[in-house]
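Appendix B. Chain record.
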Amino acid sequence: MEVILLERVEKLGGIGDVVNVKNGFARNYLLPNKKALRANESNRKVFEANRAKIEADNADRRTDAEKAAKGVDGKTVKLIRQASNTGQLYGSVSARDIVEALEAEGAKVTKSQVVLDRPIKNIGVHDVKVALHPEVAVTVKVNVARSPEEADLQAQGVDVLAQMFEDEAAPAAEELAPEAAEEAAAPAEAEAEVEAEASEPAEATEDEQ
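Structure tokens predicted for this chain:
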């Protein structure tokens, strides 16, 4: 289906561009969200008659978004969730969770502005895009951890899962150390015994006597 874009749409074009899109995308997203018009003759005339106003309104929204971006860009929110020892969440973090966390930090965004291709399902610090306007996007950090202490470590750049595996491996390595030392010493002791036997004078045989 051919449509006339009423605002910039990523990977499609800008205001006034006539583009060909899949019917489902047009009917389910572009048209109901007033991001485009069907590209028929009557709509072309309506668009051209109102183009100046459409562009002016878009510029005003962009200016407002740029102001709002200052209070959102670079923000970090912490979300404490239960997770397995491999870091997989028992559940997931959705766009709604991120919106609520940002609002708690004084940043107002809507669910539709949070660009999350799929829910977050593991602990860690995740960069999430927030599109405040088709031409204004910022990035927030979502710190998902099992405890506030882990969140603080992750904020410092610590890989808590890697550290946990190292901590678990250390006692095991200490237990194996004595055994490894004994195994390493055994061949050396056997070799020493052989050398000692070889150095002893051979007993005289009956003929030699």
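Further analysis of this model is presented in Appendix C.
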